[in-house]
Amino acid sequence: MLMKRRMNHIFAEDGNAILVVLDHAGGGGPLPGLVHPAETIKAIISGGADAILTSFGTALRFQEEVKGRGLMLRLDGGATFYGDMAKIRDIYSVNDALAIGADGVACMGFPGHFNEADILGYFSKIVRDALPWGMPVMAEMLPGDPKMCNGDLGKQIEVVARIGAELGADFIKTKYTGDPKSFRKVVEGCYVPILILGGEKMKTADALAMVKAAMDEGARGIAMGRNIWEHENPEGMVRALVQIIHKGASVSTALKELG
Question: How much is the pTM?
């Protein structure tokens, strides 16, 4: 029952989710768009975001701005953009998430990485710790070696998404493969919901087209950061995403939300 209630704070009634990721400052400091967290959070909530994923400090100090939307806490880190990101580990716990009233937790997974045993090990521990509390776990599953699966990105994403499900994640954050056919295989091979990430900053129309293509092949939404909070109009960008993810609109219709 607790699991269902918390998942309903992240996913809307249609089973889809607009999860805005605001955890980047934990590794990179006050990045453009994240200098004033309160303003950014207010804008994306006003736009219609279902939930946010963020770091401990922001989750702790800006709960008023989140209001009744879902709140997810990233549990791993310990390395910054200026150090060795390969050495991330679990630095917060499910108990910490419970203490601040989070609705879910997130961690990384890098199958194929030289450090995969440690990373997938703490990921599995998080799943075990979350289960008794009905705390949803999102795994950000990415290939840990560009050479795995003979460099075939579609196959890489298909493999890592399924590994995340098998290790107990309740839903997966991963890349769009770049083409509908290979992404359909990812969705068919993974029995938990998949949210696509945004990655590097893209042109607005390109970002929306990627989301539309993924949704058409079975994605259940987004877990996106830079392409929202670095946008000149974060609220409008979220409204455009609402059109595609919750209303099934075309990219051209969604773009009207941006004027």
Answer: 0.96
